[in-house]
Each structure stands twice: as C-alpha cells, then as structure tokens.
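Deliverable D5.2: sample structural annotation.
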Amino acid sequence: MDDIQNPGAEDARPTTALVQDALPDGMREIQVRVGPAGHRVQRFIGKELGESQRFNGEGAEVIRVYQSRKGKLVVHRHIVEWADFTASTKQAYQEKKDEFLIARRASTTSDFSVLTDWAKGFKDWRELLGLGDDGAGDFTLEIVDSLEELRDRIPAKVYRIVADVVENPSTQFLDI
C-alpha cells in the first residue's frame, strides 16, 4: 500500500500470500500438511506429477510428487499406522456414543429425531472416526534436485510416470 506522504513506500506488515505472477503452465499454489498429525502447513508454487497409494498389514502410505516453480522435485508422504488409527477411532466412537446417550436422555421425544439431530453435527466420515481436520499419521516433505535423487525415494511405477512428465513436454505438436 502506498503512503500518501511517501509514494512508493511498501506496507511493512508481513504477508503469507505467495506471489502469483504469471505462473508457468499447470502451476498453482500447493498446500501440504507436515509433521505429526499434519498440524503444520507448508505452501509452494508447483504442479502434481504423480501419486502412489500403498496399503499393507501395518498401515497405509500415500506419496505425492510435485515439481516446484524452480524445477525442484517435492515428495510429500502421508503414513498412517493402523494401530494409531484404531486407537483414535475407538476413542472417538466412545465420545460420540456418550454424546448421543446424553442427548437421548435429555430428549422428550420417542422418534428418531434425536439421532438425526445428533448426526447433523458431523461434516464427514473422518470426523465420525475422530480424525477431524488434522488427520492421523505422519506427514513429511522432501525436496530433491534431480530425477536421480528421486529414484530410490518413491515406488518404481510412480518414478516412471514422474520421469516421463519431467523429460517430455505435456503437449506435443505433431506436424503430420
């Protein structure tokens, strides 16, 4: 904001907005959660190149690979161990059950309106399971400079997709 007394003076207030000059094709602001339960958010300008989801007896892992505006490769990983998920779900179930019983006891009606009124408070299944907006598990962010550094950090199938996107233009004009 310009000062009337001093034209061209910058507003000294800090900002959290990312500069979005003319962005390269397909680039946008990316927000990712990081840390235990994803309580922190990090932002950058980039585009998603690939994703992988793996499930096994111990938990689940979601990996997303992005390319930043400066050409760096960004690996965002979300790991959930079933044991952690189960514990938070059991606790949430008990809390929601207790809330319902209190609402039922306070009600003077005998129909299902108590149940429907109680259930209206849930935004989605994650809240019902006690995951809320923060989620469960651990979220990490890794930044690498080259495809070679990326190779051992992600599954081979996702690496092939990412390498193809990075090495080849997304649109090719065929002069046929």
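Annotation notes: Residues 128-134 have pLDDT under 50 and may be disordered. The first helix runs from residue 82 to 106.
The annotation will be released with the project's public dataset once the embargo ends.
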